[in-house]
UniProtKB/TrEMBL annotation:
Descriptive protein name: Endonuclease
Region (Disordered): 203-226
Transmembrane segments: 30-52, 59-77
Taxonomy, superkingdom: Bacteria
Residue ranges annotated for the Endonuclease/exonuclease/phosphatase domain, each copy included: 93-301
InterPro entries referenced in this protein's UniProt entry, alphabetically: Endo/exonu/phosph_ase_sf, Endo/exonuclease/phosphatase
Keywords, ordered alphabetically: Endonuclease, Hydrolase, Membrane, Nuclease, Transmembrane, Transmembrane helix
Gene3D superfamilies membership: Endonuclease/exonuclease/phosphatase (3.60.10.10)
Keyword Transport included in the entry's annotation: no
A GO molecular-function descriptor: endonuclease activity
Keyword presence, Transcription: no
Native organism: Paractinoplanes ferrugineus
């Protein structure tokens, strides 16, 4: 009976791992893949039980499964290839405002205290814009490219330095993504885009989510380095996000050992384990030095702040 119980614990972990390694995210598996780090932790249970019960063959199989999960998940918790270490230091921040309801004073305080140079916002509404600007955001970040609108589909970018070529575009999932080129003093021009993909909550939404991730702009080796930051509604256990990163980006969290820091949910959806669906993706010509998450009252997402090293002019 004990052996049967152990195998009932091991087999689902093996199946999950096969789907994760194969990138077979379909239907409900799209959402489930986000919880892979939790399954990795749970896979330790049969190892311990098998060792205590002196079932050595079962313990060996369970250990191999744990080792495979460790190879997949644990690199996000240690510093990896963080990119160039010489250049101009730049601080960026992204925050999903939950239909404009995030506390403006907290966002403005973080911008001031952390000396943010570029701020990207999602679920950015006209009311949210007015609240931020009334809280003093424009004194710190006077330049902007805004696509605010009622509901969850607006976005915006604020910057300490002038923005050229600013605008916004609506992705296939219906969300606006603000973008613009910023040239910090002493640095080369950089293109920033506030990302918000459709959430994969149904088969139809899954297709839009995959299309949104596939259609995100790729780095252009012949053009300015690019930074995508925002709510990707995806973790690094999703093939679609890994493909985007693999097109020439690095995930700042993964590169700095903060890739398992959860960002959602922090307000709604009680009982759902927290996952890492907000990201700062930087062109491989940009270095990532630090990344930290910060709680924003009134939002179900934590804000991310990254310290970057961008190419000098």
């Amino acid at each position: 009976m004990v052996s049967v119980l152990l195998w009932l614990l091991i087999v689902p972990a093996v199946g999950w791992l096969v789907f994760r390694l194969g990138g077979w995210e379909r239907g409900a598996l799209v959402q489930l893949m986000a919880f892979t780090p939790y399954v990795a932790g749970w896979s330790l249970v049969p190892v311990v039980l098998a060792v205590v019960g002196r079932r050595w063959t079962t313990a060996l199989v369970a250990f191999v499964v744990v080792l495979a999960y460790a190879i997949v998940v644990l690199p996000r918790a240690r510093t990896g290839d963080s990119g160039p270490s010489r250049g101009v230091e730049l601080h960026v921040m992204t925050s999903n405002m939950l239909i404009g309801g995030a506390d403006p004073a907290t966002i403005v305080r973080l911008v001031e205290d952390r000396q943010i140079d570029v701020l990207a916002l999602q679920e950015f509404t006209p009311n949210g814009r007015r609240a931020l600007e009334n809280a003093g955001l424009l004194k710190l970040l006077p330049y902007s490219a805004l696509g605010d609108e009622p509901g969850a589909s607006g976005s915006g970018i604020y910057a300490r330095f002038p923005i050229s070529g600013g605008g916004d575009k609506r992705n296939g999932g219906g969300f606006r993504q603000a973008y613009g080129t910023v040239q910090p003093p002493g640095a080369a021009p950089l293109v920033f885009e506030s990302v918000h993909t459709r959430a994969p909550v149904s088969p139809a939404e899954n297709k839009l989510w995959q299309s949104d991730l596939k259609d995100e702009p790729k780095p252009d080796p012949g053009g300015p380095p690019r930074v995508l930051l925002g709510d990707f509604n995806a973790t690094l256990d999703h093939r679609s996000l890994r493909a985007l990163v693999g097109s020439g980006y690095r995930d700042a969290g993964d590169a700095t050992g903060s890739g398992l820091v959860p960002t959602w949910p922090y307000l709604e959806h009680p009982g759902i384990p927290r996952v890492t669906i907000d990201h700062v993706l930087v062109d491989e010509r940009i270095g990532a030095r630090k990344l930290a998450a910060h709680r924003i009252p009134g939002s179900d997402h934590r804000a991310l702040i990254a310290e970057l090293i961008v190419p000098a002019a």
